[in-house]
Structures are given as structure tokens and as C-alpha cells.
Design goal:
Number of helices: 4
Largest sheet: none
Oligomer: single chain
Shape: elongated
Number of strands: 0
Helix content: 40-55%
Length: 162
């Protein structure tokens, strides 16, 4: 790196350092690269196993039929979708990193295609764009609850109004 005062030494002095713009070969310990890739594959397997418990809200009535629960449902769905998108982004980034490590180590891993299929199936099950996309979900609140979520009459709300 040139000194602060560029006039104190000629620039050709700094252009002759060994290693700068060197077109020689880079030595990579592929066994260590493979070991890191294998560790990341193990972590990805662990995340995919944990993903089985990540499911969309199948029955909106599971939250309850009282007014506050009905009002909570849109934020629960939006929160779940945001979590699913972030989870998808992490899985895709991890798979991409594993792929790049395999390329650097000049290794082909047959399990990589299987992991990609499992991640794609998870994205489909969670209704998430591959790799997650912040623009794929409309977070705008609905003006009125759908007909299936109409207020239910009870002792505190005998007319079934909001």
C-alpha cells in the first residue's frame, strides 16, 4: 500500500511486491474444504428435519372463535409466512454455500441434488417462492374478515357484532 504522501517514494517500488497481481496457482487443502462442506450438509439436514414442524395454520378456528382471536388470525398468518420465507432463504443460502465449497474442492456430491429436491418440496409445502421473496406476500390487512370468520354470537356479544 502506498504511503500517505505519494511523493515520498516512487510508485514502481510498490508495484514490484511479490504476490501482487501474481498469476500463480492458489493452493487449497481440499480435504479441509470437503470437511467444512460435510459439516454444513449435516446442519442443513438438521434444519430440514426441524422444518417438518413448520406448518401453516390449517384450521383458523384453532385460535378460537372469540373476536380477539379472529382479529389475531391475519397477523398469525403474516408472521408464519415471514418466518417461512426467512427459513427458505437460510436453506437456499446454505445449499448454495455447500455447492460452492464442492466446486472449490472439485468434488461432486450426489446428496446435493437430493437436498435441493427436499428444499424445493418444503418451499412448495409452505407456499414460499424458492429462496424466499419479500415481494411474494401481500401484508395489507383485509377490511373485513372472510365469511368463514364471521363473528360468533356468545354471552359477551349476543348479536355477533364486532
Amino acid at each position: 500500500m502506498p504511503p500517505v504522501n505519494a511523493n515520498s517514494a516512487p510508485l514502481q517500488t510498490y508495484n514490484d511486491w511479490p504476490g501482487i497481481d501474481d498469476h500463480g496457482k492458489l493452493r487449497v487443502d481440499t480435504s479441509q474444504v470437503r470437511a467444512v462442506a460435510n459439516k454444513l450438509e449435516g446442519l442443513l439436514e438438521h434444519l430440514l428435519a426441524a422444518s417438518e414442524r413448520l406448518k401453516p395454520l390449517e384450521n383458523p378456528e384453532a385460535l378460537g372463535t372469540w373476536d380477539a382471536a379472529l382479529g389475531l388470525q391475519p397477523s398469525v398468518e403474516a408472521g408464519h409466512h415471514a418466518l417461512a420465507e426467512q427459513h427458505s432463504r437460510i436453506l437456499h443460502a446454505l445449499l448454495s454455500t455447500i455447492h460452492k465449497l464442492h466446486q472449490a474442492a472439485n468434488v461432486h456430491d450426489a446428496n446435493e441434488a437430493n437436498l435441493a429436491r427436499r428444499i424445493a418440496a418444503l418451499d412448495k409445502r409452505l407456499h414460499v417462492a424458492p429462496g424466499g421473496s419479500a415481494m411474494s406476500y401481500d401484508f395489507s390487512p383485509t377490511s373485513a374478515p372472510p365469511k368463514s370468520q364471521a363473528p360468533v354470537a356468545n354471552s359477551l356479544n349476543p348479536d355477533g357484532r364486532h
